[in-house]
Amino acid sequence: MTAKRRTKPKINPPADVRTSTINFSLNILIFLLAAVIIYLSYSIFIKLTKEPVVDLSADHKDTPADIIQVEVMNGCGVNGVADRFTDYLRDNNIDVVKIGNYVQFDIDETMVIDRIGNKANADKVAEILGVKKSNVITQINNDYFVDVTIVIGRDYFKQTPITKE
Question: Burial level of 17, CB count in 10 A (0-12/13-18/19+)?
Fold first, then answer.
């Protein structure tokens, strides 16, 4: 004779308890989603109404910077001329961060190009090199990480780095 085990019948909680638990969980979820939406809306509002960053260097456009970073580009095709200019500029406390060839080698006159909108930097470099004021131009380009670009032309032998040997 085998004895059958009696199992306790499963007692399901009343429907009211299940419904209230689901409602409570959904209410918490709704509250959390509302908090995220409010936070994102506030973030967008702050970004749209934020005052633009004022460039403090813009107030000193007539004053050259203490450290002027330049790139020296050979536009005449003469070997070693960019190195001579670089040595001379570094001797005059100009930070040369790049040396290279210009896109072409048929530049007649040496140019000094202002890249950040502070022409005083370009004027100071032009004065150090002996470049004419008419060959100092402004071409602002935020992709460049230099203050001034120097393009050495075929008149390099008239410039101060060559004449002051």
Answer: exposed
Round the average pLDDT of the chain to a whole number and report it: 86
In the numeric block, which tokens belong to residue 38? 């409010």
| Closest to 75 (Cα-Cα) out of 52, 47, 103 | 103
pLDDT of residue 42: 92
Q: CA-CA-CA-CA torsion for 98, 103, 109, 113, nearest 10 degrees?
A: -50
Tokens of 97: 């961060």
For strand 111-114 and strand 148-152, is the pairing parallel, antiparallel, or unpaired?
A: antiparallel
Cβ-based neighbours of 82, under 8 Å, separated by 6 or more = 72, 73, 74, 99, 100, 101, 152
Q: What is the structure's pLDDT at 128?
A: 93
